[in-house]
Write a structure and sequence with these properties.
heterodimer, A: alpha+beta, 5 domains, 6-stranded mixed sheet, B: alpha/beta, 5-stranded parallel sheet
């Protein structure tokens, strides 16, 4: 049994997190699905603990399961005290499970079993049943369908590794048809039977009583397929999402320590660098040997790159890992502050590099705490402002090209711009004149200035731990940017704009001021060479015509403070995406593309705006990578 | 308690291979059958949690056997083991009530992925 202990602990903790999450959800809205899910979590923990011989945990889980069972039948029986009690039980089990990793778990906290039993007794009028053994949850799944099951547009991808994509697609259709009505399927069933399924993509329109959760669950039970999107059917059906994100699939997996993945990534990166260096050296060999070596190195490079990709892929983790814990945390903070707050989370299935996720957990929590502490007003103030009694915080995650945006918006009072100005002056961070000149949008960022906090700000909850300055630093450390906006009386928006991964980037290498510099290719729209006569002057700045528009031209050497080269017969320009639209960068030469393993800059270089990192080229030469939008800002 | 599995295949090699894969993963192989008629009988006696089913077998093929088993026990979970090129037969078997399928030649992890999904006992459930 002991060899399963690690797995038991990890899995039981996951279920217990799920349990807490469901409880918080229930407090907001009681749906049969959530109650079922709650039951399943309790049931799983009971079963697992019992099979591990951990009686103390199984008993507590069993009591919780009993209570859920009773409440399942009793529509009106939920109140806050009950949720508190069950959360307490969830916490108790968590502590027990953690302890089980070291030795026999302690008994449940005193009085907890009795309190749970009493709750059952109070609702049924009979004492809690003695421990029952296995119980099937199947009997509860038959449920009256809602009057009008929602129509959903479902996009499914059959993995390229499948030997029989047509049969897979057929199975998906059947699985969904068993749950409700399949209104349409593309390719048609006839085409699927014939094995015709272009690029493995299936589009269905279904009407299921269980909604998206049921679809996701059903698809999770089919191997070799991935749910690309499950969305309420828009009328007329909109185009497929630009960047479909795979739905959260309970992947069958081996657990690997994240440090091990870090090591793998580091090694794969080093392997890439070493191969690139080898390739450079191969070029200097005599003619007779060069092609053979080149071929070998080429193959090695392809393999190293593939391995690097795979390791990067293995590190991608859905944001749910972080966001799943937030509803509970928000609830606890809100309860302590006597506020009523709902948190909604969207897009948690979007994946980010594990390294970025790890850095994000604390900052996200801090932003949420801030929203509750300083944003959401108390009941009377909300009533006076004509707002609904429960404050709402929305955490939305979405893909924006090669970035992920995590946005936290609240409907509270907004940030106190004048208060921040005054605090900055009072605490000596700014002179009164400078504070007065600072536009409101910039003033918000004073909240990120270490040591600037508005008077009366320091609560026991968000006054300690990381502050907004640490939030900003954390986001920037992983290559992201922090956005703040606020509307007095309406609410605050905090957004993290993050890269998907750290590490590898395709670079366009250019020469400017005699130096070689790298530009991330994701920002590059194109490169052109123009004659000086083709450059136009508008409002005193150079511009170049590009399609319908006139793009501003910036000299890269001048931006970096290098000496500019003299006039030339033809001017190479790199067109790229900056914050305020496309721009053209004048460079001295285009040197080619290179795949680079990015090394973050260390102090003090990381303080320079406009530098995104450094990489070592195959030749051994270090090259700075530019963050052009920040350079232009 | 380990999940109980019945293996149906006319090839002894295939039966051994599937048995090894499943046993190594902690499943208990409670019986084997070499053709469709035997499969239906053994399923009735053993009531396994899962049955792996070859399609092309003597006396009674896997599709017929699947149909009969599911008729007698609608909760029976049957995974079809088919060869490449038998797509049409697999679809027929699915319509007859099979829960899922694997395509030969398979790797152990392919079999286990499907079996776990069908039994709903993946590590994340």
């Amino acid at each position: 049994m002991s060899r399963y202990l690690g797995l038991f602990v990890a899995e039981a903790l996951e279920h217990l997190e799920g349990l807490s999450r469901d409880l918080v959800e229930l407090e907001r809205e009681r749906t049969p699905e959530t109650v079922d899910s709650l039951f399943r979590h309790a049931h799983s923990v009971k079963g697992m603990a019992a099979s591990m011989g951990l009686e103390a945990i199984a008993t507590l889980a069993h009591r919780v399961e009993d209570l859920v069972e009773v409440l399942r039948g009793d529509g009106g029986g939920w109140d806050q005290a009950l949720v508190d009690l069950m959360l307490e039980a969830a916490d108790g089990m968590q502590a027990q499970v953690r302890a089980a990793a070291e030795g026999p778990p302690p008994p449940p906290p005193a009085g907890l079993l009795e309190a749970l039993a009493a709750a059952v007794h109070a609702r049924t009028g009979r004492p809690a049943a003695p421990t029952r053994i296995a119980r099937t949850i199947l009997q509860h799944t038959a449920r009256r369908p809602e009057a009008e099951p929602p129509k959903l547009a479902v996009e499914v991808q059959v993995l390229a590794s499948s030997h029989s994509p047509g049969v897979r697609a057929f199975l998906v259709h059947r699985k969904l048809a068993a749950l409700g009505t399949v209104l349409s399927v593309r390719p048609s069933l006839e085409e699927l039977r014939a094995g015709a399924i272009a690029d493995g993509r299936i589009s269905l329109v279904v009407a299921l009583p269980g909604g998206p959760a049921a679809v996701r669950q059903a698809l999770a039970e089919v191997p070799e397929v991935e749910a690309l999107s499950i969305e309420p059917l828009a009328v007329p059906p909109g185009p497929p999402p630009e960047a479909p994100s795979p739905a959260l699939e309970p992947a069958h997996s081996v657990r690997v320590r994240t440090e091990l993945l870090d090591d793998f990534l580091e090694l794969a990166g080093e392997l890439l660098l070493a191969t690139a260096r080898l390739r450079e050296m191969g070029k200097r060999l005599p003619e007779a040997h060069a092609p053979l070596v080149e071929e070998g190195v080429g193959r090695l490079y392809a393999l190293a790159k593939e391995m690097h990709n795979r390791v990067m892929g293995a590190r991608m983790t859905p944001l749910a890992v972080v966001t799943d814990q937030l509803p509970r945390a928000v609830r606890d903070v809100a309860r302590r502050r006597g506020r009523e707050v709902d948190l909604s989370v969207e897009g948690a299935e979007i994946e980010l590099d594990r390294a970025i996720l790890d850095v994000l957990a604390d900052p996200l929590l801090h932003v949420l705490r801030n929203a509750i502490d300083h944003g959401i007003e108390d009941g009377p103030a909300r009533a006076a402002a004509g707002k609904p009694p429960r404050g709402s915080i929305r955490l939305a995650v979405r893909r924006a090209r090669d970035r992920v945006v995590i946005e936290v918006t609240d409907d509270g009072r907004g940030m106190d711009v004048e208060g921040l100005r005054a605090a900055a002056v009072a605490q000596g961070a700014l002179t009164r004149e400078a504070a007065g000149r600072l536009p409101d949008s910039e003033v918000l960022f004073l909240a990120c200035h270490p040591g600037v906090s508005t008077a009366g700000d320091v609560s026991d909850i968000s006054g300690r731990g990381v502050g907004m300055d640490a939030v900003k630093r954390a986001v920037e450390r992983v290559g992201g940017t922090l956005e703040l906006s606020s509307e007095p009386g309406r609410g605050t928006r905090v957004a993290f704009r993050l890269p998907l991964t750290v590490a590898v980037l395709q670079l366009l290498l250019v020469r400017a001021g005699g130096e070689v510099l790298g530009l991330p290719i994701t920002k590059v729209l194109g490169a052109v060479e123009v004659l000086p006569a083709e450059l136009e002057r508008s409002n005193g700045t150079l511009a170049v015509r590009h399609g319908q528009s006139l793009l501003p031209v910036h000299g890269l050497a001048a931006l970096l403070g290098f000496a500019e080269a003299g006039p030339r017969a033809s001017q190479p320009l790199v067109l790229l995406e900056a914050d305020r639209g496309p721009v053209a960068l004048a460079v001295e030469g285009l040197l080619g593309q290179e795949e680079a393993v990015i090394k973050p800059l260390s102090r003090p270089l990381d303080q320079l705006p406009g530098l995104a990192g450094v990489t070592i080229l195959g030749s051994g030469r270090p090259v700075f990578i530019l963050d052009v939008p920040r350079l232009l800002a | 308690m380990p999940r109980r599995v019945l293996i149906v295949d006319d090839a002894v090699f295939m039966r051994n291979m599937i048995r090894d894969i499943l046993s190594a993963a902690g499943y208990q192989v409670v019986g084997e059958a070499t053709h469709g008629i035997e499969a239906v009988q053994r399923h009735r006696e053993l009531r396994p949690d899962l049955t792996t089913m070859d399609i092309v077998m003597p006396y009674k093929n896997g599709i017929e056997a699947t149909r009969e088993i599911v008729r007698g026990d609608p909760s029976a979970r049957i995974v079809i083991c088919s060869a490449l090129g038998q797509e049409a037969l697999v679809m027929e078997a699915i319509e007859a009530g099979a829960a899922d399928f694997v395509v030969k030649p398979f790797r152990p992890e392919d079999v286990l992925t499907v079996v776990r999904k069908v039994l709903g006992d993946g590590p994340d459930r």
